[in-house]
Amino acid sequence: MRTLAILGAVGALVAGVALPALASTKPSHAEAATLQQMAFDDAQSLVVASQATSAPMQRSGYSATTPEEIAKKKAEEAAKARAAAAARVAAATRATGSTSRVSDEDLRLAASGSGAVRYPLPQGSYHVSRTVGSGHNGADMVAPAGTPIFAAAGGVVRVSSESYFGYGVAVVIDSVVGGKRVSTTYAHMTNGTRAVQAGQAVEAGQFIGKVGNTGHSFGAHLHFEVKVNGGLVEPIGWLRVNAG
Fold first, then answer.
1. Are the CB atoms for 187 and 216 separated by under 8 Å?
2. Is residue 228 one of the residues assigned to a domain?
3. Residues 23-79 pLDDT 10s
4. Domain limits at 112?
5. What's the rounded mean pLDDT across residues 142-168?
6. Is residue 229 in some structural domain?
7. What pTM was estimated for this model as a whole?
8. Within a domain: 210
9. Is residue 29 part of a domain?
């Protein structure tokens, strides 16, 4: 009996120690944690798009968008282009010495407007006496001798001569306008007033010479001739459509 009592006491002691341990290793179904729940405690927080805030955009980080800003920007760019063109012409003039009758004031002249095509004479300074037809290949723009002449379009000077056949003192400029090859001719200029040389790049509206009465001419005027993709076009109509 004494032995049985001792064995019973030992068994009770073992059960009392083991049962809590077993209970801790077998959680109840209600307290079982899923993988998602176990991972949640260690997961990093996520900021969704609706919670994000964008950094403020500085005004200097974007281009002009209003009509006023665009017009101002175009005017500033045109002024810079005219200044750069005048500087290039002045440099070319000093290098060649062939345009002694062109003053520094002349070289600062530029046609009004900011488009890719400009009128070759100042508005209101001329009238058209005749245009293309009956063997005449251009428009005769009658203006006082010495009236400044401007490049109708930017491009490269192909001809700059004091005696260009019947054209007299003349300049021919090759350009690209609207994806088309355009050649403009400026004839009957005054001797010694050419402000550009063959091979020189010019800007639209750049001063290139002065109205005269050289070559086959009867009275001071500018013979203005335009060819598009090699074909002759009526110059005044072309200006009205393209100049700005």
1. no
2. yes
3. 444 444 444 444 444 444 444 444 444 444 444 444 444 466 787 787 777 777 766
4. 67-242
5. 97
6. yes
7. 0.62
8. yes
9. no
